[in-house]
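Table 4 source record.
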Amino acid sequence: MTEKTEKYYVPEQSKLPFIGSVGLFLTVFGAGNYIQDSTDLVNNPNSWGFYVMLAGIAVLVYMLSTWWSATIRESMGGLYSNQMDRSFRYGMLWFITSEVMFFAAFFGALFYIRVFVVPWLGGDGNNAMTHAILYPEFLAQWPLTTTPSGETTQAMGAWGLPAINTAILLTSSWTLTIAHHALIDKNRPTLILFTSITAVLGIIFMGLQMWEYQHAYEELGLTLGSGIYGSTFFMLTGFHGLHVTIGTIYLIILSIRCAKGHFTPENHFAYEAGAWYWHFVDVVWLFLFVFVYAI
């Protein structure tokens, strides 16, 4: 790897931020319309929103692959100084901070529903009249397995697939830590092996979560249309699954870069940033397991 320069590198103007914005818009717009067309996403693959969402994802893949390729070339070409390295670190720290706030909002919604809304609708305290007028059939219990339309669903058990996925993510944090220490110790075979194992564990997690979703839709009657419990469940676990997907793609790229010898003990922040992100995703899952599945 080329030595770092002492000059602060300023890249030339790029269309990638605009392209990424278009991709994000198409993805969110398409996904929103896809969900609105039908809550039965398994049996409704022909919604026009589905294809708009795929187009948005394709644009994002193009943008990210082009951007990452340029960043790797610049780094390997010695264009980044120590000041640039600090800029990357600050940027990643603020990005993870924004992600913490992102999930904090969702956990806050879950807390508000369980602690305030459910007792209120159940006639807790001075709300007996509200309960009698608004929803006399409502039972103040969590999870809510009876929807407003009267349909009955089942809650996801914590000690089946969710517990297995928890073990997988905890193991992946351990394997990634081993790989990170191997990078610092210049143990390249261990670095490549355990980074790859971490990526494989991420793929297994995603596969099991897809299986879990299929089980929820087809056997438990738990869908996005299953009232506040269903929408909250899929909102929290779905966004976490998206983050696991992004992290797994990152780990696959890191595995390829490790095999090419791109990182040194002195210069490997791209790897370190991936480790930060993956550990953050693991911590979020622990909160999900406790507050969504276990209690």
